[in-house]
Write a structure and sequence with these properties.
2 strands; alpha+beta
Length: 47
């Protein structure tokens, strides 16, 4: 988990990554999506 400056209204600034992403993956915005924390916790509640 990483917290950065929000990019707009409704953006908390939080990002959740697996830890294995390379620079090429991270530089492509198509590899990201906005999801609610509830959806994330339904997938993995170990946070």
């Amino acid at each position: 988990m990483l917290r950065d400056s929000p990019n707009g209204e409704g953006d908390s600034g939080w990002s959740i990554l697996g830890g294995y992403e390379d620079d090429a993956f991270l530089s492509d915005s198509e590899n990201f999506q906005i999801v609610s924390l509830g959806v994330t916790l339904n997938i993995d509640d170990s946070f």
